[in-house]
Amino acid sequence: MTTSTQSAELLAATTLLRFATAGSVDDGKSTLVGRLLHDSKSVLTDQLEAVEHASRNRGQEAPDLALLTDGLRAEREQGITIDVAYRYFATPRRRFILADTPGHVQYTRNMVTGASTAELAVVLVDARNGVVEQTRRHAAVAALLRVPHVVLAVNKMDLVDYAEPVFAAIAEEFTAYAASLGVPEITTIPISALAGDNVVEPSAHMDWYGGPTVLEHLETVPVSHDLTGCHARFPVQYVIRPQTAEHPDYRGYAGQIAAGVFRVGEPVTVLPSGRTSTIAGIDLLGDGVDIAWAPQSVTLRLADDIDVSRGDLIAPVGDAPAVTQDVEATVCHVADQPLTVGRRVLLKHTTRTVKAIVKDIPSRLTLDDLSQHPAPGQLVANDIGRVVVRTAEPLALDAYADSRRTGSFLLIDPADGTTLSAGMAGASFAAAEEPPAADDDAEWDF
Fold first, then answer.
1. What is Dmax (Cα atoms) for the chain?
2. Any bridge partners for residue 120, and if so which?
3. Which terminal residue of the chain, N or C, has fewer Cβ atoms less than 10 Å from its own Cβ?
4. With the C-alpha atoms ordered 53, 58, 62, 64, is the resulting torsion angle positive or negative?
């Protein structure tokens, strides 16, 4: 083995891939995850023995690998996935954090949670059923969340005699749909999670398929965690003022760098106030440094004593996001109670939470043909739609297309703290709606 090859493999082994699985009910998501864990030898002996014991108690001869991820009692009793199950495993080539998400329509909100930090989404379909509405819904969510890589795993190929035409028809339909959503990369793989075909090892039953197995693709798909080339953003989480004899005048602003690079001596602006200063120092783990980058947690010290508090955003002068009180966005509604026009909410963006009101809901997305249903009046659980929100205080909000960290937000019920909707600011794969005409609402109080 050459030195360059060894260096490449060592670099790959240090990379981390976050991915999520999604699909309709009984498509075999948990079985696929269990097969990945089992065949990659990432299951401890006692875990496998517990699964074998539980499977025997249910009258099954072979171990039910889905039990490796379905840990809730209700999940095991019903044979379904209800909650998001996070699992960590590693191979010699890469480390993985996976989120096994539910397939039921009423749990689509959980898929939003699982895919929000994912670089890749594995969407399963049953080869006997093909692309169904929930498949389209999951593809739409992946596109909205700007997941850069999507894998279509056509499962249960053993139940259709490993027929290539069945796979080809499903792959063509899904690829066309996902491409229309703006998904940048789509990979299609025929598998049988139960039998292990093309999951970790190549299938002996599908010699017509010459592509990678699921694990091979997960190990080799290019993943970039480099946020240093993005617009520099620092949401302030906490103000540190010891006021001790040792540090009588220390004033630092602590938080995690969301994106980009900050340097000592760099002129910055504090939003939403717009006041400017210069970075006088950067403290990292108790030591001063000259430069810091995402996603490091640091404390910034400014040259001027200006008013900075939790929820403010520090950005370079000349490269700061626009400040606005009118937020146009696409949201995935996750609450059981509907989101209606005129609803008063809290909007949480990075470390800042402000009062807001839903001014308009211009459209709801129809997943069958990607058309916009105009003026629906409300969004119910699992709906995807466009909203216009007016905030009580200005927000420094990026477009979600530019930054998944500073372009996302949550709408929260102010009464009980329930999350209502997950929002992505700016345009999405859906046609951007014209903003509504301004009016004087008698009930507008901010």
1. 78
2. 19, 149
3. N
4. negative
Asked if residues 361 and 376 have their Cβ atoms less than 8 Å apart, the reply is yes
d(CA 38, CA 314): 46
Nearest to 193 by CA among 27, 24, 22: 27
Dist. CA 349–CA 100, nearest whole Å: 26
- Read off the pLDDT of residues 369-388 as tens digits, 9 standing for 90 and up: 677 889 998 999 888 899 99
Written as six digits, the tokens of 225 are 């965690």
What's the rounded mean pLDDT across residues 32-51? 69
DSSP output for 146-184:
T-SEEEEEEE-GGGGTT-HHHHHHHHHHHHHHHHHTT-S
d(CA 279, CA 261): 12
Structural tokens at position 357 = 């009101």
Residue 208 has a pLDDT of: 96
CB atoms within 10 A of CB 337: 13
Could you tell me the two tokens for 440? Answer: 């004087």
In the predicted model, is pLDDT for residue 334 greater than 90? no
CA distance 28 to 39: 16
The first and second tokens of residue 198, run together, are 């093309």
Question: Is the distance from CB of 136 to CB of 368 less than 8 angstroms?
Answer: yes
Q: What single letter denotes the amino acid at residue 17?
A: L
pTM of the model: 0.79
Name the phi and psi angles at 100, rounded to 5: -90, 110
Give the pLDDT confidence of 104-115 residue by residue, as tens digits: 666 667 778 788
User: CB burial class (10 A; 0-12, 13-18, 19+) of residue 236?
Assistant: buried
CB atoms within 10 A of CB 52: 15
- The bridge status of strand 339-340 relative to strand 378-379 is antiparallel
CA torsion sign, 157 to 158 to 164 to 165? negative
